[in-house]
Amino acid sequence: MMRKPRFMLITLSVLLMSCSGDDAGSSGTGSGDHVWKDQVETMDRARAAEQKMLDAAEAQRQAIEEQTR
Asked: Residue ranges of the domains in the chain?
């Protein structure tokens, strides 16, 4: 009969200790590194390339517009 309450008490204690406020294991998250860092950097480079392409297309449109005047 005492096994069930004791088991529940031990389980609850373990869960509470594992969810304590000690953030020793998450020290790497504050430096900006995360799981998708490579993907985010790739997307940033793609956005920069897209902007360069849009700027070049706009410059080409303006050059064509000036030639037709």
From this structure: 36-69
